[in-house]
Amino acid sequence: MAPPKLPLTNELGYYEIRMESIGGMGANLAGQILAEACILEMGYNGVNFASYGSEKKGTPVKSFLRLCPGDVEVTDNSPVEHPHMLVVFAEGLLGSVPLTQGFKKGGSVVINTTKSPDEIVEIMKLPGCRVVCVDAMKIAMEEKIPLNTAMLGALSRASGFIDPEAIKNVIKGKIGKRYPHLVEGNMNAFDRGYNEVKETDYCSLEKYPEVPFHRVEPELGYANEPMGGIITNPGNTVLKNHAASRTGYIPLWHEDKCIHCGDCDLTCPDHCMVFEIRADDKGKDNSFMLGVDYQYCKGCLRCVDICPVEALTTEVETNHDVNQLRADLRRVL
Fold this sequence. Notes:
Elements: E1 15-22, H1 27-41, E2 45-52, E3 60-68, E4 85-88, E5 108-112, H2 117-124, E6 130-134, H3 136-143, H4 148-159, H5 164-176, H6 183-195, E7 198-201, E8 249-253, H7 263-267, E9 273-279, E10 285-292, H8 302-306, E11 312-316, H9 322-325
Parallel strand pairs: 1-4, 4-5, 5-6
Antiparallel strand pairs: 1-3, 2-3, 6-7, 8-11, 9-10
Helix pairs in contact: 1-4, 1-5, 3-4, 3-6, 4-6, 5-6
């Protein structure tokens, strides 16, 4: 039996998906699972691959999927620049990464968020499209599994043609062999991601135009490369904002429990802990913690692990206003 007809295609006959994520959220694996489901289970032709820099938690990740009917040959292996479906795994990427570049009017946006579709349209300035929101982080925490399974459920719902049972079969095959005890949680998360979406059709919306795709070119080359391996773009300065590197969690400081020991400052790789020198009860100058500067915090949570009195705890970022909680490191430098 031939697979369902693709709802949209480009001039080459492909339906294209681009997933925007952060390392550690499972977008690369989600792309592999989706490709196997569509190609091996449903009969489409297609190709899947990912694009990223350093393969570590907290770095930007893109996963691409290109589908076409079984009688069409896949001849394009370049990154997806004009997706029919845009899948955003981390709300923290909004405003930090040009997510909507090349996104086609009439397509679908699937996003992990606690916000409503109306809010997402305004924040992302989306051209006319269908918006599907799902709180995948909440589902993942309650089911105690990564959030990529919930995102696959929402993606299947948004597509209108990708068989959810095909995806579930692949998930069972991939996870069941090595981690059979995790199959039930992943199935629950997939079903909840499929059923707990908030979706609205804005295809007739003309408020915002499509954003042209801009391919980023290297700033340095053979003609202007500095001598001696000079690092012209340091990884962490006062100009950097690492908020988009967090995978949905923050270390929350509890002032009433803090003993100002400084262990968190010793273990923090990005010096996010803010201390000031002031007189203690005995009149001697001492260091006192003021909080966490979330502009530089990438959410590694080492500080939570090392704190001897649980003055730092792991919390879901969307439950807190980090701009209000933030202690400004520059104020004490």
